[in-house]
Every structure is written in structure tokens, then in C-alpha cells.
Amino acid sequence: MEVDLTRVLCAIHELADPGARGFTVGDGDWPLQGFLVRRGGTIRAYVNRCPHAGHPLNLLPHRFLTPDRSLIVCSSHGALFELTTGYCVDGPCPGESLTPLAIEIRDGYVLLAAEAADSSAPVAALGRP
Ligand code: FES
Q: Pocket of ligand 1, candidates 64, 74, 97: which has the most ligand atoms within 8 Å of its Cβ, to mutate?
């Protein structure tokens, strides 16, 4: 099966472990802004919008994690989120969560799932622990 290039977010080797990478999908005034987070064999995608005040989480390209890369951090007011759940564990919006996006892994690439509007499958496994 061929990879649908319009949905490719990045190649798996472009994601550090643990690491994060931002992406934009679509054109026009309101493209989808999101980011990928990898830890071990798991990759998750979230909308790049903080539940606190709606700001993008990063100020610099691809900078979504704390220095020790154990949590996602919002650069605006310091909210901290778990990598694997997007759940806010500290900062101004505890108990709220990032919005997950459905993704899939195909032929070494991370793709936005065709049903990305349905957030029921926000995780893709690389097939190893
Ligand atoms: S907008 Fe993210 S912590 Fe305030």
C-alpha cells in the first residue's frame, strides 16, 4: 500500500526517543497545528493548543518538552502534561488535557489518520515495547 503523502507528519527516525516534533497539516487561515511525542515504542499526537488559554505550547520549533524530556511543557505559563496521556499534572490548568489526534504508522512514517477528526485512536505503536 502506498503512503498518502498529504497525511505524512514525519519519518519515525526524525523523532528522538523521548522527543517531540511539531507539524502543520492543511492550508488556508486555519491549518491543523499539532505535535508528535515519542517515548519508546509509542508515538502520540496532540493539537498544539494549551487548554489553559488556548496558546500554542511552544515558542521555538519542536520545543514541547521539559529539559529532562519527561513532560510536555507549555511555554506561556508553564503547564505540565504527561507525555502518554496529555493530562495536565501541574500549572494553571490541572486536570485538563491536551486534545489527542489519531495517527498511524506506515512504512517508517507517521501519518495523520484519515479519521483524524475522530480522536478515538490517538496512539500508534511501533511494534516493540
Ligand atoms: S496557555 Fe499554556 S499554561 Fe497558559
A: 74
**Rounded distance between C-alpha atoms, residue 2 and residue 100, angstroms:** 25
Q: Which of 89, 69, 70 is nearest to 78 (CA)?
A: 89
**pTM more than 0.90:** no
Supply the residue whose CA is at minimum distance from atom 3 of ligand 1: 77
Comparing C-alpha atoms, which of 46, 39, 47, 32 is closest to residue 15? 39
pLDDT for 124: 59
Q: Nearest C-alpha to atom 4 of ligand 1 is from which residue?
A: 77
* In the chain, domain spans: 5-125
Kindly report the CATH number that applies to the domain delimited by 5-125: 2.102.10.10
105 has which bridge partners? Answer: 110
> Does the pLDDT at position 121 exceed 50?
no
Sequence-separated (6 or more) residues with CB below 8 Å from residue 67: none
